[in-house]
Amino acid sequence: MYRGPVPEPTSEPTAEQRLAALEIRVAELEQRARAADPADSAETAYTEQFFALEALKGRVPEDGAVVFAGVVRVQGSPEPVQWQYGKSVDEIENLDWSAMAGNLDALGHPVRLSLLHAVWSGVGTVAELKEREEFGTSGQIYHHINLLVAAGWLVTRKRGHYVIPAERVVPLLVVLTAARG
């Protein structure tokens, strides 16, 4: 049997205390609503978990689909690159997967990925690339660049100046993101 002091019954909060508590809760809710307003933050839509997946659900065939998209600001371009691509799972299953080996193989070498990163960062000529020791000789650089050009990951915009073509920017970033896991 408990023999300690008996706590006094708690009294109901006053109307003023309840009103103050409600004002605090309303202020918190308003702050959350402002933070969730896309007009207030361009990154809100990006940070909203699964926003693209939710938009996709009502538009896919029964067997499912894979879609990737992006809006990317590219150095030297006044407008961002906008790209979207998708296939149904059935279409993907019926592709010749081995035919894609060359495109993937071109990305499967650390030097070629470093070359692409350098080009992405604005280095576009073999002479500029040769200034960096990690790329090797000009012959080695041309070897890697030729493989990247053959796979479509690089193109020549003007004599001796390489760029990642706009239509490959988002796919390249998607592959890199997927490889990261």
Features:
single chain; 181 residues; alpha+beta; two-stranded antiparallel sheet; two-stranded antiparallel ribbon
Give the structure's gist in a few sentences.
This protein is α+β, with helices and mostly antiparallel strands and 181 residues long.
Question: Can you walk through the features of this model?
Answer:
This protein has helices at about 15-35, 45, 50-55, 90-95, 100-105, 110-120, 125-130, 140-150, 165-180; strands at about 65-70, 80-90, 155-160, 160-165. The strands form 2 sheets. It has a two-stranded antiparallel ribbon. About 50% of the residues lie in helices and about 15% in strands. The chain is an alpha+beta fold. It is elongated and about 85 Å long.
Q: Structural class given helices, strands, pairing?
A: alpha+beta
- Count every helix, treating DSSP H or I runs of 4 or more residues as helices: 9
Q: Trace the largest sheet across and list its strands.
A: 1-2
Low-pLDDT parts are: none
The percent range for helix content is 40-55%
Oligomer: single chain
3D shape = elongated
Mean pLDDT: 84
